[in-house]
Every structure is written in structure tokens, then in C-alpha cells.
Request: fold
Amino acid sequence: MSTAALIVAAGRGARAATAGGLPKQYTLLGGVSILRRTVDAFLMHPGIDAIAVVIHGDDRDLYDTAVGSAGGKLQRPIIGGATRQDSVRLGLQALSPGGHGVVLIHDAARPFVSDSIITNVIAGLQSSPAAITAMPVTDTLKHAGSGHTVDRTIERTGLWRAQTPQGFHFGLILDAHDRAHSEHAVGMTDDAAIAEWAGIPVILVEGAESNVKLTTAEDLRMAEARLRAATASETRTASGYDIHRFTSGDHVWLGGVRIPHTQRLDGHSDADVVLHALTDALLGTIGDGDIGQHFPPSDPQWKGAASILFLKDAARRVAERGGRIVNVDMTILAEAPKIGPHRAAMQATIGAVLNLAAERIGIKATTMEGLGAVGRQEGIAALATASVELPRTDS
Ligand code: MG
Reply:
């Protein structure tokens, strides 16, 4: 059974004073428009087969800028009517030829709708022709007469605040809207009210406080602050160093690339000093020991191992902590071989493992001017640094 989502974005949002009189659904929240965030929540949900947005006739350019590139399950926008009720009816009529079994109707101004809320509403529609997201009322409710004087307290047992999405069997809600229109039953503030008016049973599915409707300028400010807190990240930098001595052989491994040479580097694995230094730098960004701790030289299973394995393991550890590698940078200390001809191959090899573009992978080389062990051509050393963006933690 095909499931459609209808997002209602045709309102003018008069209660949220925004810069330049922009309708609030098009204002930016954390750099992304509210409407785009809402559309993305449904685009990414696997249970939604088609999405259409009802917009105001004046907002086509705003819509194209905000959502135009989304593609995929998103259909062409529908021009709404004078009221929310009209806009939903026009949206349902436009979606009707798609033959959808159920439809979830959602306010554009609720961008924080979660995957689980969408899932729960769809699940509710298996046992009922209408299922809406709602929250039980927890505050004590007062009814005020004139002059803000309380005349009574309202029993809150059994009271719920309706949110969206509100889900319906498609044919039933379209028919209810059409009938309400022809019988001039107007002024209903949500689609569940239309269903109730038409005698369709509606069940409640518990939503979440976070699924807030952004109505006032204050709501927008709080949402911005909440988003900043949720997406706060920090960048960490760490270094690594390695050196291996030469022994008799005919090639060296550097940066995951086999390079013909008059000697080879001695080591338990393939002795790739560049990847060893880089692996340690990555482990350093998450405080997770060093390469020798995770791959002890005493363990025979790593004898002759390709060091790219060690780099893959460090990348996995960073990814498990939600880290994103920003850039890595290496300096190779060697009198020979020449590194320049192999730089692009090293960048390609390392880039494939770390999912990084070449411009984020620095590979430099220097000789030691004949000074010290490396200068005497007794071995090759490498330095590495890595920068990783990680979700900010309190500790
Ligand atoms: Mg080493």
C-alpha cells in the first residue's frame, strides 16, 4: 500500500516576525530552511513513497530555492488555497491520481518530526482509518473569563494536544474534505477535526515534545539554540611518528605504494613508516592508544601484513565515535627514493581508505642533508598529523 506525505506550507506565518517578512517556513534554521528540514525528514523515511508540498501562490521562487534540488520521492508543489483547510483539500486532490492507500498530513513548521513518530503513525493506520500524533496535557488548565480572571479549572484527564503528522486512509480523508467543502463546514484547525466531523474514528499515537510547531519568533530562537547544541562539534589534531631501518631488498612500501629501491625497510609488517605514522596520528585524535597496542609486533598474524589494514582499523575507530576526518598531512624524511613521482598514488591509496579528496592529504618529503641516521641512509622516518571533527562531549 503506497504511502504519501502531504506537507502544508501555504501559510503566511503572521505570528513569527521574520526578517524581511519572509514566511517562516522559508527562514533558515541552522543554515537550512525550515521547510527543507521538514521535507528531508519524510524524504529519508523508507516508509514514505511520495511527498508533495502545498505552497502559497506567491512562494514558487522561495520553494525552488529551498527545496527544488531535493528530487527523489518529492513531487511538484501544489498551490494552496485561502485557508489551511482549503490547502489540504487541494493537496489531496492533486495527490489523488497517485492511487495512494494512506496519506500523512504534516505542518511544514514542525521540522523536528522524528523517524519514529512517522513510523508510529503509519503503524497506527493498520488498525484505524485515522491515526494522529499527540501529547497528553500535563499542565493544569485554567479557563479565564473577563480580565484574565480564572472562572474554573478544566479537568485535564483525557486531554491531548494534537500535533502532526496526522495519518488517514487516503480515500476517506479526501472524501471528508470534499464533503466539508461542499457543505461549507469551515474553520477546522486540523485534519483530525475534519475526520471527526465526517464520523471517521481517530486514534492517538504518542508523539514527542521535540516535535514542536515553530509559531513565534521565540520558538525560532529556541529551535536555533537547540540545533546549535545538538550539532556542536570540536576539531582535534594529533601527531604520529615512525622510523624503520633499511635491510637488504629491492623495494620499499611508503604511503601504501610499492616503490622500487636498492634496499627495503625492516619490520614485522610491510614496514610502511608513512602509514604507521598516519595510523598513530588518527588514533591520537580519539585518545585510543597506538598502532603497537592494537597490532602487537609479537603477534604472528601481523607478520608481513599490509599496513593499509592498520589505517583502515584507525579510520573505523574514528568513524565509530562519529568522527569525520578533516585532513591529514605527512612528511617523509629520506635521502632516497624520490617521493614526488609517487605522491599522487599515495594520495589515491590513502584517500580511498579515509574517504578523503587528494587536496586533504598532504604528502611532503625532505632529505636530512646527510645528518643523523636517516642522513646516513640507515632508514626512513615519517611524521604525520591528522585533524578530526568529532561531536562535542562535556568531559
Ligand atoms: Mg612502524
Observations:
- The pocket of magnesium ion is lined by residues 242, 244, 267, 273, 276 (CB under 6 Å).
- The chain is about 30% helix and 30% strand.
